[in-house]
Write a structure and sequence with these properties.
The protein folds into 2 domains: 145 residues, Sandwich (Immunoglobulin-like); 278 residues, TIM Barrel (Alpha-Beta Barrel), CATH 3.20.20. The protein is 28% helix and 23% strand. The chain is built from 10 helices and 19 strands. α8 links the parallel β10 and β11. The N terminus is likely disordered.
Length: 441
């Protein structure tokens, strides 16, 4: 019996998988919670989640900056995993290196390093939101020189490289400072690269009160006057009111009014005010947390504000690595089996989202059980099935499905012999095998 079981395991140990569908989706087409916040560090994720996913909301946004010197895959995978568990959608703005008060101009040689790093991560949702640098219409943000043509060329080539690595990258241009020659900068970008807007998927805006919190609408209109016909979803990654000019109660009123009116626009996908916790100059005036550690009252104002239950699209995919059924079964009896499966997607598997199915065959699947399985992790599925009433060698194919019954794995065959044998002995033997596998895991 031992030799038969060993041979059986070797025969069925092979891999089946299905390739996840790829390509960005239009975020306007799904239920979306546009409320978000810009944070400085991953230590602020819990406070961010409490802010943006309260008031009946879920799956709010967080803008984070990653510099060249911070491209640590393990660190950022842990950040993404934490954001997944907190239901936070990341908007990642990449940055070069600071040289005093000036950010170095990105080199083309760094493109491949960025693409390799960003593509190595298991992202939280299907859309991988990337903002390509920051306010290049300021000389200090682009190596000490305003160079709209150079930025447009860089953006175009970077977008091409990102989308060659994965069409799930949702490429956003840098937000511009509307008070510093924004219109002229955009015109020069288009002059240098007339098709530049074929290579971006949305629009990034920084509508501060000094130029108007509806500046994004003016920017979209200006783009149309330049011949840009593409519909560009808007991501407001910076905005806010200075506490040097206004008291916290007034700031709270302004935020509530803006979210309910000025930013309550179907074109606006996310609004991430700057910044949750930053009490150093020059940005302390925009911090939502006071120097003594408490949050200003407008944090609670926005926290209590009614929000939308977001439902972003996540890739659900997996692999069945091994399926082991009881090799010898008594007719018309229940028997147990185990499946070793790997979650290769983005969502956490649970029994409300992922189901075990079987194709037509000799066995009848009765029930199954598994604990939650996180992305890039393996899990055990225990199933119970009913054997046929007649002796013989029977085969069955099993697979996993996600929402709407869509297959997320390939089919995996199991076989068993139905014979007349002492039911108690064979069941006890196989139950001991099952327990050994569970203990090993």
């Amino acid at each position: 019996m031992k030799n038969t079981l060993t041979l059986f395991l070797f025969l069925i140990f092979f891999l089946f998988s299905t390739k996840a569908s790829l390509a960005i989706y239009d975020p306007i087409t799904v239920s979306n919670n546009r409320v978000g916040i810009h944070i400085f560090s991953e230590k602020d994720l819990d406070d961010a989640a409490n802010l943006v996913n309260s008031g009946g909301g879920d799956w709010g946004y967080v803008t984070l900056v990653i510099t060249e010197g911070e491209r640590d895959r393990d660190r950022w995978q842990q950040v993404f995993d934490r954001m997944r568990s907190l239901h936070l959608i990341p908007i990642i703005r990449i940055a070069s290196k600071a040289n005093g008060a000036t950010w170095e101009k990105p080199s083309e040689a760094e493109m491949d390093n960025w693409v390799g790093f960003l593509n190595s991560l298991n992202w939280v949702i299907q859309n991988r939101y990337i903002v390509v640098y920051n306010e290049p219409n300021h000389a200090a943000e682009w190596g000490g020189k305003v160079d709209p043509g150079g930025y447009a060329t860089y953006l175009k080539f970077f977008s091409q490289k990102l989308k060659s690595a994965s069409p799930n990258f949702f490429v956003l241009p840098a937000g511009l400072d509307p008070g510093t020659g924004e219109d002229a900068f955009i015109k020069s970008m288009i002059k240098a690269e007339p098709d530049i807007f074929d290579f971006v998927d949305g629009w990034t805006s920084h509508p501060y009160p000094t130029t108007g919190i509806e500046q994004y609408s003016k920017e979209l209109y200006f783009l149309k006057t330049l011949g840009v016909t593409k519909n560009l979803p808007v991501f407001i990654t910076e905005t806010g009111w200075s506490n040097k000019n206004l008291d916290e109660k007034t700031i709270g009123k302004n935020l509530i009014l803006a979210f309910g009116d000025s930013w309550n626009d179907p074109r606006v996908i996310a609004v991430t005010p700057f910044i949750l916790d930053y009490n150093s100059e020059p940005f302390a005036q925009f911090s939502w947390r006071a120097p003594d550690g408490h949050f200003y009252s407008f944090y609670e104002d926005v926290k209590k504000m009614p929000k939308t239950l977001g439902n972003p699209i996540q890739i659900v995919s997996g692999q069945i690595l091994l399926a082991l059924a009881q090799p010898v079964i008594v007719p018309n009896s229940d028997f147990l089996g185990v499946i070793w499966a790997r979650n290769t997607g983005q969502s956490v598997w649970n029994q409300n989202q992922v189901a075990l199915k079987s194709e037509s065959g000799g066995f009848v699947l009765r029930s199954y059980f598994f604990n939650d399985v996180e992305p890039l992790k393996d899990g055990l599925i225990i199933f119970k099935a009913l054997a046929p009433g007649h002796v013989g060698l029977y085969g069955q194919s099993i697979y996993l499905t996600g929402q709407m019954g869509r297959r997320i794995t390939g089919s995996f065959p199991i076989e068993a012999a139905v014979i007349q044998i002492d039911k108690v002995r064979i069941q006890d033997f196989f139950n001991s095998v099952i327990q050994s596998i569970i203990s090993y895991q």
